[in-house]
Design brief:
The chain is built from 11 helices and no strands. It is mainly α. Helix 4 runs antiparallel to helix 7 and helix 7 packs antiparallel against helix 8. It starts with 19 loop residues before the first helix and ends in an 8-residue tail after the last helix.
């Protein structure tokens, strides 16, 4: 779940446009147009270059300067891991564009949204990389090699249906917002904190867009939407799950409280399900009811896992404190 997920990559099987779920996408077109207009009104223009302390920059050895060394970074191991994962996740934007363009199409309001979303997301990788290279926060050679490997592998969500895809991105955008926001705090750097807060604001607006579409889809086809939501919650994994060293870095991130099971349950899954009134609806048929029951059972287990993880982390922090060590936390 979340940063503790295991990457599973299956061949993509695009949904035929004549499927019942594709018909729901057609019915959602006016809702997409309305929410696209709302998004454009709410979104504020910003520029990546404004968030980078350029006066800290200097040449590397290739141009007669000095290459990177660990002592040049002001980030601790936790902040480095989180920034590394967050940036590499943003780097796979071409794969994400393909994912949503394949499922939502490139025509009409859906196509306009796909283009707008892609353009906005593109700023995130630009700003994060510029910040890290200029401030020498991480090894730029390691970063570039990791980018090449990860983008070559790409991201493939498997055979998600259009409704599963729109449910997934509702949760994923909020999860990314939480991760970016907490990473900013973990850096201890006001510049990075401000940059990641700005990126998190974008992610929040993207989440609201998708969340509103799911709200409308519940009214159009409640059973299919309920099944899609249950499936995505129960099989959720972040898009970076197939990244090299993801498990190692996700453990560091979770131990620091940047993103863990507790946050995933309390700040991502639960609030969105409440907005959709998943456990208050009375319009489900047998399939929808079954999916809701399965989801409720899964959430109970997730909550228990989250509690167990937090208790374990607190015991670890207490042991570190007893030894005079300073636990890393956000």
């Amino acid at each position: 779940v979340g940063y503790d997920g295991v990457g599973r990559v299956d061949p993509e099987v695009p949904m035929p446009r004549t499927s019942p779920q594709a018909a729901v996408l057609t019915e959602l077109e006016p809702v997409v147009a309305e929410n696209l207009d709302r998004h454009i009104r709410m979104a504020k223009e910003w520029h990546p270059h404004d968030y980078v302390p350029w006066d800290e920059g200097r040449n590397f050895a290739f141009l007669g300067g000095e290459d990177w060394s660990p002592e040049q970074s002001r980030l601790d191991q936790t902040a480095k891991a989180a920034m590394f994962v967050n940036l590499l996740t943003e780097d796979n934007l071409p794969s994400y564009h393909r994912e949503i363009a394949t499922r939502f199409g490139r025509d009409g309001a859906w196509g306009q949204w796909v283009g707008r979303w892609t353009a906005e997301e593109g700023r995130h990788g630009i700003a994060l990389r510029d910040y890290l290279v200029v401030t020498r926060g991480v090894d730029p050679v390691e970063l570039e090699r990791a980018r090449m490997d990860y983008m070559t592998t790409g991201y493939d969500s498997g055979d998600k249906t259009p409704l599963e895809a729109v449910a997934y991105v509702s949760f994923q955008e909020l999860a990314t917002r939480v991760s970016h926001r907490n990473t900013g705090r973990a850096t201890g750097d006001p510049v990075a904190d401000k940059l990641l807060a700005r990126i998190a604001t974008d992610e929040n607006l993207h989440m609201i867009f998708y969340r509103n579409l799911v709200t409308a889809a519940f009214d159009i086809d409640p059973d299919e939407m309920m099944k899609a939501v249950a499936h995505e919650v129960m099989h959720f994994e972040m898009p970076g799950a197939n990244m090299a060293n993801f498990r190692k870095n996700s453990t560091i991130i979770a131990k620091a409280g940047i993103y863990d099971l507790r946050l995933h349950h309390d700040e991502v899954v639960a609030p969105i399900l409440r907005t959709w009134k998943v456990f208050d609806r009375s319009d489900f048929g047998p399939e929808g009811e079954q999916a809701r029951e399965q989801l409720a059972e899964f959430l109970s287990g997730l909550d228990a896992q989250a509690t167990k993880f937090v208790e374990s982390r607190e015991r670890m922090r207490a042991r570190m404190a007893a030894k005079g060590e300073v636990p890393i936390q956000v």
